[in-house]
């Protein structure tokens, strides 16, 4: 990781709305991550409200950081920290850790952004949040790769349904700007969740789990996520990590009840 890597990522976030660092971790690290994700996914699917539907055969699960063995490696990676500082400022906060699982048979999602654009982005062209994604598999086209319309993080979304779903009349533009991403184990990407994107249809016989790490700038209100850690785990973390965690600290962890099911994503696309 070099200063050039960070500069390239910052430039990519402000132009394309997405950037990546290839080979940020060894593939074996990603394999261990997948083991954690698959175990947590089985747990989530076995209890009520343990997973959020994001379309047919597609789920999202927020988890406790201490249940992910690679959490500390990820939040302390020099590239992750440097990009977060450059875009969000030195007092950025980690507010989300979870994973998206498109299973075999997952259909294409409608084009969307993850939440309405804040005033700072629309009026000042300033990004106030970032999502780091880590694949746990070597992605191939049949797995329904992530597709993102470059440069659309600045769209104001005034005519979007719920501020997130653009009208279908805008789809040809997004399809013209779209790029499908085929990351490999060990790669880490970073994007603005405002950049218009969608998961495509998984026509393979394999799932495509992706870890999601969500960050916001200091002072940004966040009611979409509920990051929770145990007191014992919090006390073991390095001070510089604790300083960036926007979390609740509890004496004992309880299963997370997922929220924010979005009807437009549950329905999915028909093509």
Automatic annotation (TrEMBL):
Stretches that traverse the bilayer: none
Pfam families given in the database record: PhyH
Keywords: Dioxygenase, Oxidoreductase
Family annotation (InterPro entries): Fungal_Metabolite_Diox, Phytyl_CoA_dOase-like
Gene Ontology MF, one: dioxygenase activity
Listed PANTHER family: PHYTANOYL-COA DIOXYGENASE FAMILY PROTEIN (AFU_ORTHOLOGUE AFUA_2G03330)
Name of this chain's protein: Phytanoyl-CoA dioxygenase
Species this chain originates from: Saccharothrix yanglingensis
């Amino acid at each position: 990781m070099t200063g050039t890597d960070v500069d390239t990522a910052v430039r990519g976030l402000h132009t394309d709305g997405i950037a990546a660092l290839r080979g940020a971790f060894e593939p074996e690290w990603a394999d261990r991550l997948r083991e954690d994700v698959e175990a947590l996914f089985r747990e989530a699917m076995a209890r009520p409200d343990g997973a959020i539907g994001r379309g047919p055969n597609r789920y999202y699960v927020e988890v406790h950081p201490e249940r992910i063995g690679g959490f500390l490696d990820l939040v302390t990676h020099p590239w992750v920290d440097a990009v977060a500082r450059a875009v969000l400022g030195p007092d950025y906060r980690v507010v989300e850790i979870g994973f998206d699982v498109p299973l075999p048979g997952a259909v294409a999602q409608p084009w969307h952004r993850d939440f309405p654009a804040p005033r700072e982005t629309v009026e000042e062209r300033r990004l106030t949040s970032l999502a780091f994604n880590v694949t746990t598999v070597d992605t191939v086209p049949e797995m329904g790769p992530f597709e993102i319309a470059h440069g659309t993080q600045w769209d104001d979304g005034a005519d979007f349904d719920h501020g997130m779903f653009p009208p279908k009349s805008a789809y040809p533009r997004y399809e013209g700007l779209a790029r499908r991403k085929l990351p490999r184990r060990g790669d880490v990407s970073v994007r603005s969740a405002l950049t218009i994107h969608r998961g495509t249809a998984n026509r393979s016989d394999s799932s495509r789990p992706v870890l999601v790490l969500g960050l916001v700038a200091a002072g940004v209100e966040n009611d979409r996520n509920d990051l929770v850690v145990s007191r014992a785990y919090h006390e073991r973390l390095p001070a510089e990590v604790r300083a960036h965690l926007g979390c609740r600290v509890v004496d004992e962890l309880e299963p997370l009840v997922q929220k924010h099911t979005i009807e437009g994503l549950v329905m999915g696309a028909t093509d």
